[in-house]
Q: What sequence folds into this?
């Protein structure tokens, strides 16, 4: 494995959790927190595209983000980024929104109201991640805090509210920190229910299908076109998820069978904080990328 990206970006990264491959399979989008753990009032461009050797291709997004977190890239190259915290400020505040950009960095759509948290249609509170279905419907994991909104919001392709499901709790269909989201080839929505140390699977109408507890405490989920699922666990330790090793779990998204495991670079036996990958992505060659919040880097694992 190796770390990549910082030298060609010309600066040290801050916390990194947003990562997703471009449709060409030969480049990777990354969102980092402007050399720190927050991007408010920074003139740094936090959304960056790298080639597979970690060389910077382009960047954008200065002055727009408080906390770039989850990321999704559509087949046409459009880049979605969640701003997963919020700050009140004059004139418009920061965060609580989802941005959609063209590959060149042009803002195409904003979901939510910047700086304004809420539960009603049209508002979010610390949205963590998103996925776009083949028919264009948008699904948002809304609520980075364990006691936050804890819901999934479904929107039309043009951003109108369709429905929502979920609330705070531990039962099926309830959440504590909806932190990650992905979709498999059958159209099932995978929701990383992090503080409950599980993944829940739903159909696109919000019906609970299955609960998964054997893929760690999910911070990030990525599913390839051929249904290989990668789940990044950056938080399991003796205090939060006893007996579960943290790292990247790899398996079959349809059968749910585990096939491989990449141990965290910092094997944990105590109560240490976040380590290793929160965001996870895979390029066209099968190489694996971990976006690391605590270590503040992107780590590449080369397929052998």
A:
């Amino acid at each position: 494995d190796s770390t990549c990206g910082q030298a060609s970006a010309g600066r040290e990264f801050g916390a990194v959790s947003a990562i997703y491959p471009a449709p060409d399979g030969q480049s990777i989008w990354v969102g980092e927190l402007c050399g720190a753990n927050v991007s408010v009032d920074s003139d740094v461009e936090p959304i960056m595209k790298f080639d597979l050797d970690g060389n910077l291709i382009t960047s954008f997004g200065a002055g727009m983000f408080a906390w770039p977190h989850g990321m999704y890239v559509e087949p046409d190259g459009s880049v979605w980024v969640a701003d997963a915290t919020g700050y009140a400020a004059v004139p418009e505040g920061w965060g609580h929104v989802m941005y959609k950009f063209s590959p060149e960095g042009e803002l195409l759509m904003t979901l939510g109201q910047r700086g304004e948290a809420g539960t009603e249609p049209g508002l979010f509170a610390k949205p963590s991640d998103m996925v776009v279905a083949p028919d264009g419907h948008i699904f948002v994991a809304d609520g980075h805090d364990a006691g936050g909104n804890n819901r999934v919001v479904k929107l039309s392709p043009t951003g109108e509210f369709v429905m929502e499901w979920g609330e705070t709790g531990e039962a099926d269909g309830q959440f504590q920190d909806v932190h990650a989201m992905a979709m498999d080839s059958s159209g099932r929505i995978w929701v990383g229910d992090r503080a409950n140390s599980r993944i829940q699977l739903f159909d696109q109408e919000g019906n609970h299908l299955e609960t998964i507890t054997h893929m760690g405490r999910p911070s990030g989920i990525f599913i390839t076109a051929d249904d290989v699922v990668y789940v990044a666990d950056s938080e399991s330790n003796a205090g939060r998820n006893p007996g579960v090793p943290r790292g990247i779990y790899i398996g079959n998204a349809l059968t749910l069978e585990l096939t491989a495991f990449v141990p965290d670079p910092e094997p944990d036996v105590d109560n240490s904080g976040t380590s290793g990958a929160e965001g996870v992505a895979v390029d066209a060659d099968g190489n694996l990328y971990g976006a690391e919040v605590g270590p503040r880097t992107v780590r590449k694992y080369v397929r052998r």
Remarks:
- Helices lie at 6-9.
